Amino acid sequence: MLRFLPKYLLALVGCGFLFSVGWLRARHRYLIYQIAVHFGYPASRGTRELPPTAISRVLPGAFAPSLLELDPAEGNVTTLELAVLAESVRRTRPAALFEIGTFDGRTTLNLAANAPATAHIHTLDLPASQLTSTRFDLDRGENQFVEKESSGRRFAGTPWAANITQHLGDSATFDFTPFAQGIDWFFIDGSHAYEYVLSDTARALGTLRASGGVIFWHDYQPDWPGVIRALNELRRTEPRLAGLVHLEGTSLAYCEISPLRP
Description:
CATH class of the largest domain: Alpha Beta
CATH topology of the largest domain: Rossmann fold
Low-confidence stretches: none
Helix content: 25-40%
Number of domains: 2
Structural class: alpha/beta
Strand content: 5-15%
Distance between the termini: 61 Å
Number of strands: 8
């Protein structure tokens, strides 16, 4: 009982923050949603249909990723999600990776730090100059992640920057042709609007090698109903995504893409 007391006190103080000003952040609203559901509140902002799957089913055994820039900013993946992504890269050893949604480059940096030294990471971000000319409407609240001084500041000037190419543009109009069947590992964390998730997923499938690959999606959670709707639909309608799952304890969705049949 005494060993539990510090955890109880920390949680008590945390709840004071969570229910006063903490709810203004999307990741904190997700925690409040989980608490509400635990006590019987119905899931009313989009029902997650992807099979919940333990992280250990996808990545069994001990984790040993190198994690950098652990302090998260609003819009970053959680530390657990960062560890999952980095560990996946460490184990699969992809030669070429692609990320949609650079933001501050925290995830990009960790992908590069855990990939083989000869691997290359391509990361695409929407510049503020194109905010009013996107093919599809962004989801509400996403402008704040676009209106920034620069993309990828967390990997700029690091030893891994040479292994990263920063691309700028709208993912719905960006030319993915040079990457056709040339990517091993893909992370989708761009706009959370339904149309963009569908479009980005189609682009990702078109870039994976004929031998298959891995795709992760971020924010499969109630605060982003467009992501939920799109991924639920894709699992039902896209044969190559029949194995799409939701990793328990995270907002990550995951699918290992099988090789193309000749």
